[in-house]
Write a structure and sequence with these properties.
The chain has helices at 13-24, 53-57, 69-79; strands at residues 5-9, 28-33, 41-42, 45-48, 61-64, 91-92, 97-98, 103-104, 109-110, 115-116, 121-122, 127-128, 133-134, 139-140. By secondary structure, the chain is of the alpha/beta class. The chain is globular and about 45 Å long.
């Protein structure tokens, strides 16, 4: 991935929470993309209808911040037609504890205070919400 810039897809309450993890993970958050909220601002950043083309072209990260699993998966599927998998990273809040042997798939979002123990696996696009624990050798499926 190129720069450590990110755009979040979604502009609701969940997106505000995810923004905290994105920033904590060292990304500069450039804004949000939402067809429902475009033209407004969120956390002082613009909400656009689509991910800016220059952001995609520069290799910037795209983070999906949609709480509904089925909707998140549908957005992921659409994105893969135009976005490189490297632009859909796993994002972990700095307060999360991730075992070195744990595996986080692309598109995973790990919120504040999460623990992912040894040999645990987290599937594509999954969400580990605030304070959740995934114990040793556990598997959390996609989305």
């Amino acid at each position: 991935m190129g720069s450590k810039h990110a755009v979040i897809i979604g502009a609701g309450g969940h997106a505000v929470s995810v923004a905290e993890s994105v920033r904590s993970a060292g990304y500069e958050l450039l804004g949000f993309a939402s067809t429902d909220q475009y033209g407004s601002t969120l956390l002082g950043l613009p909400v656009t209808a689509e991910i800016p083309a220059d952001h995609l072209g520069s290799g910037g990260a795209v983070i999906i911040a949609i709480g509904d699993n089925a909707t998140r998966e549908a957005v992921w599927t659409r994105l893969l037609a135009t976005v490189a998998i490297e632009q859909l990273p796993a994002v972990c809040h700095a307060s999360a504890i991730i075992a070195p042997s744990a595996q986080l798939s692309p598109g995973v979002v790990v919120m504040q205070g999460v623990i992912v123990a040894n040999e645990a696996r987290v599937g594509v696009g999954a969400l580990l919400n605030t304070g959740s624990i995934l114990e040793h050798e556990s598997q959390l499926g996609d989305f």
